[in-house]
Design goal:
It catalyses: a (3R)-hydroxyacyl-[ACP] = a (2E)-enoyl-[ACP] + H2O. This is 3-hydroxyacyl-[acyl-carrier-protein] dehydratase FabZ. By secondary structure, this protein is of the alpha+beta class. The chain is 17% helix and 40% strand. The chain has 2 helices and 6 strands; from the N terminus they run H-E-E-H-E-E-E-E. Strands 1-2-4-5-6-3 form a 6-stranded antiparallel β-sheet, covered by helices on one side. The relative contact order is 0.20.
């Protein structure tokens, strides 16, 4: 896992924090993170992505909802790292809200989606983030995300 000097996570470490698996695991690497502050991660977009078969065969474009999902997964990683907990099979991060979303450029095969997520507020189990994703330094999408961590086992 990470040390104070090494704030990166490889795919195997990410899989310990997120319940998502192929084809919906949309974070390939964490480049840097600071608890209760921010995280930077990447999604390598390849021509082999399942969604390109239908979106769109003649001009492949990553669906906007999946870009939002990739940013939300990045935010979820930051939530777990900030809390200092590893989720179990009953832990789920749910969306509570998505605000001020703007799509600025299409993302396609060969692009590397770099996601920068900043924690704006955490109160009563609700986290609010400012998320931006860029390709080659150009803004692709931005949004404010609100999430909560819940245990799916009812007591």
């Amino acid at each position: 896992m990470t040390t104070p000097e090494n704030k990166t996570l490889c795919i195997n470490e990410i899989k310990k924090l997120l319940p998502h698996r192929y084809p919906l695991l949309l974070v390939d690497r964490v480049l840097n993170w600071e608890a209760n502050k921010s995280i930077t991660a990447i999604k390598n977009v390849t021509a082999n992505e399942e969604f390109f078969n239908g979106h769109f065969p003649h001009k492949p474009v990553m669906p906007g909802v999946l870009m939002i999902e990739a940013m939300a997964q990045t935010a979820a990683i930051l939530s777990f790292l900030s809390e200092g907990v590893k989720p179990d099979e009953n832990s789920v991060v749910y969306f509570v809200g998505i605000d001020n979303t703007r799509f600025k450029r299409p993302v396609g095969p060969g692009d590397q989606l770099k996601m920068d997520v900043e924690l704006l507020r955490a109160a009563r189990g609700i986290y609010k983030y400012k998320a931006i994703a860029t390709v080659d330094g150009n803004l692709a999408v931005e949004a404010e995300l609100m999430c909560t961590i819940r245990n799916t086992v009812e007591s």
